[in-house]
Design brief:
The chain has 292 residues and is an alpha/beta fold. It contains eight helices and eleven strands. The strands form two sheets. Strands 5-10-6-7-4-1-2-3-11 form a nine-stranded mixed sheet, sandwiched between helices. A two-stranded antiparallel ribbon has the order 8-9.
Length: 292
């Protein structure tokens, strides 16, 4: 079965590890809209690949080394034929308004890349938290920063903002969210321990990304940092509007940064990296191409 081409001149690309709980919903969201859909799977142990193949998605499997590395592989090796490419996570959904506006912007030919607003959902509640992200570009006009986590697309040309909402349904439950954050905080701690390069040069008076990198690099020097971070999420970003869920999210975001600091300190005390967690042998699927 092949993916039924939709009305938008775009290839949607996703990467996955055990995303079976999201695949039906995200693919239903793309049906009739995306021209092509690709999935680079890191040997999931659930039914991620089975669902994707049933919907006609072009699937390959490859060992995961880091987010930047996996995305650059996808852009370099996948047989994308659509004039536009879009990065999508399996837990994200495109609103009807965003789909229509993306279609129009892609056909206008005025920009090399497109940014959009992503809004966060947690525990079935929409939070008043949003980000503006570059997620679509002219095919072959983008590469990703080659870092382990928090990869960033670098697009050749003008970026245009497109109105509409991308919903980010961050984990089906708190157990899943905590497991994901444990992996994320370990990756961030290893980057800090090794003094590895960030997504961009940290500069207080540079671009938005460079300012974020400066804050990231200097965060652990700030007194009362976790209280300030909680108040930033709770009051400044307006998480209080969502009641207890917003409060829990604001506390959890501060706890994530605390875990990174504690893991870095542990590495410096012991002089070694953490023991690599093994999530299972993986499930190579004979129906799809395999890459090392």
């Amino acid at each position: 079965m092949a993916w039924p081409p939709g009305i938008a001149p775009v290839a949607v690309v996703m990467i996955s590890l055990n995303e079976g709980h999201n695949m039906e919903a995200v693919l239903d969201n793309l049906k009739g809209w995306a021209q092509e859909v690709f999935l680079v799977d890191s040997y999931s142990q659930d039914d991620t690949v089975e669902i994707a193949l049933r919907h006609g998605v072009h699937v390959v499997q490859r060992r995961f080394r880091g987010f930047g590395d996996q995305w650059n592989f996808a852009l370099r090796e996948l047989p994308i034929s659509a004039p536009w490419t879009m990065k999508l996570d399996p837990d994200e959904r495109l609103s009807a308004n965003l789909k229509a506006n993306l279609c129009a912007a892609m056909r206008s030919g005025k920009a090399a890349g497109l940014s959009m607003e992503r809004r966060l959902w947690l525990m079935g509640r929409e939070l008043p938290v949003h980000q503006r992200l570059v997620r679509a570009w002219c095919t072959d006009k983008c590469r990703f920063t080659d870092i382990a986590v928090n990869e960033h697309p670098i697009v050749e040309g003008h970026i245009e903002y497109v109105a509409g909402v991308m919903e980010h349904h961050d984990s089906p439950d708190l157990d899943h969210w905590l497991e994901k954050q444990n992996r994320y905080t370990t990756a961030e701690a290893v980057i800090a321990f090794n003094n590895s390069a960030l997504a961009d040069t940290p500069r207080l008076f540079g671009s938005a990304l460079q300012r974020r990198m400066w804050l990231k690099k200097n965060f652990y020097r700030v007194p009362f940092r976790y209280l300030l971070l909680f108040l930033y999420h709770w009051l400044w970003q307006g998480a209080w509007r969502t009641g207890w869920v917003g409060y829990a999210w604001a506390r959890l975001r501060a706890d994530v940064m605390r875990l990174i600091e504690y893991k870095v300190r542990e590495m410096r005390l012991t002089g070694r990296l953490p023991v690599k967690r093994v999530y299972g042998p993986g499930r190579p699927d004979p129906r799809v191409p395999q890459y090392d």
